Amino acid sequence: MTNPGWPFVHNISTIFVYVLLGIGFATCSTDPLVQQKLDRVLKLPGQTFNVSFAHYAGYITVNEDSGRALFYWLIEADEDPDSKPLVLWLNGGPGCSSIAYGEAEEIGPFHIKPDGKTLYLNPYSWNQVANIIFLDSPVGVGFSYSNTSSDLLNNGDIRTAVDSLAFFLKWFERFPQYKGRDFYITGESYAGHYVPQLSQAIVRYNSAFTEKAINLKGYMVGNALTDDYHDHLGVFQFMWSAGLISDQTYRRLNLLCDFQSFIHTSASCDKILDVANEELGDIDPYSIFTPTCPGNVSQSNRLLKRINRVGHVSEHYDPCTEEHSVVYFNLPEVQKALHVDPARAPSEWSTCSELVNSNWKDSPRTVLDIYRELIHSGLRIWMFSGDTDAILPVTSTRYSIDALKLPTSGPWRAWYDDSQVGGWTQEYAGLTFVSVRGAGHEVALHRPKLALALIKAFLSGTSMPASELVSSY
Ligand SMILES: *[C@@H]1O[C@H](CO)[C@@H](O)[C@H](O)[C@H]1NC(C)=O
Ligand SMILES: *[C@@H]1O[C@H](CO)[C@@H](O)[C@H](O)[C@H]1NC(C)=O
Ligand SMILES: *[C@@H]1O[C@H](CO)[C@@H](O)[C@H](O)[C@H]1NC(C)=O
């Protein structure tokens, strides 16, 4: 790759052409409102409780020519949904399902018991404060598909943003009650690319078409891939200072990988990454202090592949949670309840698509240029980090933020939840950093209560809670 530049910037007009070609000239034959009603999910298999909120699942065609359709699951707020914002959640990979991770083990209300058949209600679901939409993105991930099989071998950042923008332009037609609603984009890991890229596409679309098509207010990313060079520095430093790798491997990682692409690594960098993985031993690098799932869950060798399991110290934490979702979402009756088209369903649903991951195309080495652009557009931008993740650790996020050279508006301090330190925060002009203490890569899986405090503060635009009065004695 001779051009490390960021092609998206130069291709933004191409995006509009794609979007218009893909959806502009095609009219849906069904009335969108009729389709909205058809998308309503009445009851899920294994749901032994009633819920007070409505939810909807289905497809939106994002490209007529190729036959690409993205699958979504909208879960409305449990009280007063009309007054609450709309929040999109995206998982990364690339190739991992936002329904598998975001909905079923992190921020969604429906979590799956170890039998793989029964559901329980997540008491810290983000639908207490927002209407949440989970999007399987791009095609080939989760239930999203393409009728052109080669599409699955040609996914990349640019088309993912194009298709996601096309998705929302059409989705708001099907759900007109959400038009003009405050909209926020959130996600983790490789969604550190998707989230700012989609935000940029929306901001540019809005300014090109004057009338504010989508009322985007801000975005928030967690343990996010942001800038390959700074992310590498931070990963290696974290692994060394946590005592996971040798001095020699630390030096060689910096020598051979610092200037490499994070997801398209060179052979020499790959080799030393293998050495590092060997030195780590059988720990969960996504959450270095929690037990691994004892079964033979395939452990990825690649550092960024999955945003997966791990667990935590709470009694409720189950390191095998990912396996339960594989059972559940492969049940034909579950797919039927979610309106999955049996003819378009993957022959076997998986949490992450290896095919999509290993054939990923364009992946710019940095998205900091997008941050610079969007900070000036007035969006609310937050970056959070679970501080026991060795995949995209807190050190990486801090190096990336430092590279933006933003003035500090609120100094570094601890934040509190129930009189305990929940993590640390620093506010900059245009960006807020929040760490979550004791959380791994999937912050809401390990620290669901702290994650709920985080989304509450983000959506209300307030600082993280400070210490309550400390009683002196
Ligand atoms: C759910 O609601 C239905 C209809 O109101 C009721 O018959 C049923 O007992 C409820 N189930 C539970 C578990 O509360
Ligand atoms: C994919 O092809 C099937 C069969 O022709 C068709 O019913 C479906 O609408 C197509 N999907 C999209 C997104 O065009
Ligand atoms: C574990 O892996 C072995 C070998 O691949 C396989 O035969 C076995 O069925 C797996 N066990 C479980 C519980 O998945």
From TrEMBL:
An example molecular function term from Gene Ontology annotations? serine-type carboxypeptidase activity
State the EC number(s).
Answer: 3.4.16.-
Which subcellular locations apply to this protein?
A: Secreted
The record's listing under InterPro entries reads: AB_hydrolase_fold, Peptidase_S10, Ser_caboxypep_ser_AS
Q: Which domain of life is it from?
A: Eukaryota
Q: Which GO terms describe its biological process?
A: proteolysis
A GO cellular component term found in this entry reads:
extracellular region
Which EC class is the enzyme in? hydrolase
Keywords attached to this Swiss-Prot or TrEMBL record, sorted alphabetically, are: Carboxypeptidase, Disulfide bond, Glycoprotein, Hydrolase, Membrane, Protease, Secreted, Signal, Transmembrane, Transmembrane helix
Q: Where are the transmembrane segments?
A: 12-34
Q: What is its main location?
A: secreted
Q: Span of the secretion signal? A: none
Which family does the record claim for this protein? Belongs to the peptidase S10 family.
Under which name does UniProt file this protein?
Carboxypeptidase
- Originating organism: Juglans regia
- Lineage of origin: Eukaryota, Viridiplantae, Streptophyta, Embryophyta, Tracheophyta
